[in-house]
Design a protein that fits this description.
Length: 440
RNA sequence: GGUCCCAUCGUCUAGUGGUUAGGACGCGGCCCUCUCAAGGCUGCAACACGAGUUCAAAUCUCGUUGGGAUCACCA
């Protein structure tokens, strides 16, 4: 059995978004689970839209997510190779020149549609005479090229969708070279997958039809046909795949305090029969990947749900998973994590316990009394209960009337970890001053 | 419009002819805490529609409706 190799092949025409991330993640997880290799390939054949800035941004997001790659390639650096293959394919009669303008093509499509016909390319270019071509050249028209699909049934066994088949006659011959000589994604992608020994192609189901034509390309260049797996596309809350989903960037999520492993856990399990639960390492998550548990329907992605999941993810996050980013020790982390909405908020509590806080005085009589009753250190586990019992007895207050003013005075916040946990962390001196209404 | 895919609680899903249609998330209630949060328990809630096959259909067949993908000189 050959070693498996997968690739994530983004086009640097935007930042990493949730759809991209999901594809990259599944590829990475599959490689990890199978002990294979994960490759990054920059599909920058579209000069007009590709930008270095986006490429850098994607690399950064990928690294932040933990989706590291062990090798990489760039399509714009491989044009010589594509040209070589193309020339051979032209000789084989699998690639042919066409001279229609985009406008003419658009017109043909519209006309076909209005007649109730499928807007499939009519292969008019296959019937050009030498004179036709000479005339086009004389007009100054430059050819674009299409890959000729052979008639017949194309089928493959999709790792997610099972057996898939298409009749080639229902497909358009894909354009593979633009009028300006640049390549479109189809053929370079196949050449690269073949040259780099990609064994599995996992991508969104928007590519299923492409797969049919690409299988013929793999065969035409004499390459190994990889195994395909097509993930159902994520849809937005409203049903349609919204533009918002496309623009929902990893960078924004990160800035909002969403944890990388929350994103990965959520995306890996959404749309599967497994419950969405937190994983704290990609390796653990990888072991649970199972194509047979991926549904065929399109799951709805809801960013609010992700954010909610993220909060729970933080509440149970082990110290080891965050310690590199923390200034506090394990005990402190465990005391406050269940109240955090973002990891960085641990600083807020660190400051409340160790820094200076301006107390809010809600019931001065009560907090003054509480200050006077507060025993000096050393404290024991029972100190808080004993102290509060006295305050309760003396003030006659209980429940919220009792706790709220004290919490506000002690922490300056209306909610947070249990006061019993917090008090020892704050210490006598600060606690006393704050209860007295002084900044401390 | 052609081709392909899909359809079970609000959401993600289990279910492969006989189930009180199960779980998870969310939502409601209760409990725990002398407060909030966190936590525990519990409740509400679904087979898109219509035929057919069958003793029996969420499950099989056909149709309808609805959703999605693709049919780009984007990837």
């Amino acid at each position: 059995m050959t070693k498996i190799k997968v690739r994530f092949a983004p086009s640097p025409t935007g930042h990493m978004h949730i759809g991209n991330t999901r594809t990259a993640l599944f590829n990475w997880l599959w490689a990890k689970k199978m002990g294979g290799e994960f490759m990054l390939r920059i599909d920058d054949t579209d000069f007009a839209r590709s930008k270095k800035e986006y490429e850098d941004s994607m690399r950064e997001s990928l690294k932040w997510l933990g989706l590291v790659w062990s090798s990489e390639a760039r399509q714009s650096a491989r044009f010589e190779r594509y040209k070589e293959v193309t020339e051979k394919l032209i000789q084989d009669g699998r690639i042919y020149p066409c001279y229609e303008t985009p406008e003419e093509l658009e017109f043909k499509r519209k006309r076909a549609l209005s007649k109730g016909l499928p807007p499939i390319y009519d292969r008019q270019a296959l019937n050009y005479t030498k004179e036709d071509i000479a005339n086009f050249e004389k007009e100054g028209r430059k050819p674009h090229y299409r890959f000729k699909l052979n008639d017949g049934e194309i089928k493959w066994n999709d790792a997610i969708r099972g057996e898939v088949k298409y009749e080639a006659s229902n497909l358009s011959d894909p354009i593979i070279i633009r009028e300006d000589g640049s390549y479109l994604y189809h053929l370079p992608s196949v050449i690269d997958d073949s040259d780099f020994g990609i064994t599995h192609i996992l991508r969104g189901e928007d590519h299923v039809t492409n797969t049919a034509s690409q299988i013929q390309m793999f065969e035409a260049i004499g390459g190994f046909v990889p195994t395909f797996a097509h993930l159902p596309l994520l849809t937005g809350k409203e049903g349609k795949l919204s533009k918002r989903l496309g623009s929902l960037g990893v960078r924004e999520l990160r800035a909002d305090g969403v944890e990388n492993m929350a994103i990965c856990s959520y995306l890996a399990k959404l749309g599967t029969s497994e419950e969405i639960r937190s994983f704290y390492s990609l390796e653990d998550l990888a072991q649970t990947l199972d194509f047979s548990k991926i549904g065929r329907a399109q799951p709805k992605f809801d960013v609010e749900e992700l954010k909610h999941f993220n909060v729970k993810h933080i509440h149970t996050m082990p110290f080891d998973a965050v310690k590199d980013r923390l200034k506090v020790n394990e005990e402190f982390w465990n005391d406050v994590k269940a109240n955090l909405e973002k990891v960085e908020d641990v600083d807020v509590w660190n400051n409340i316990c160790n820094g200076e806080v301006s107390p809010q005085v809600e019931n001065k009589t009560l907090t003054d009394m509480a200050a006077d009753l507060l025993p000096k250190e050393p404290w024991t586990d029972e100190t808080f209960n004993v102290w509060l019992g006295e305050v309760k007895a003396k003030s006659g207050l209980k429940g919220k009337d009792l706790f709220h003013p004290i919490r506000l005075a002690l922490t300056g916040e209306a909610s947070g970890p249990e006061l019993k946990t917090l008090l020892p962390l704050i210490g006598y001196k600060k606690a006393y001053e704050r209860l007295k209404g002084n900044k401390a």
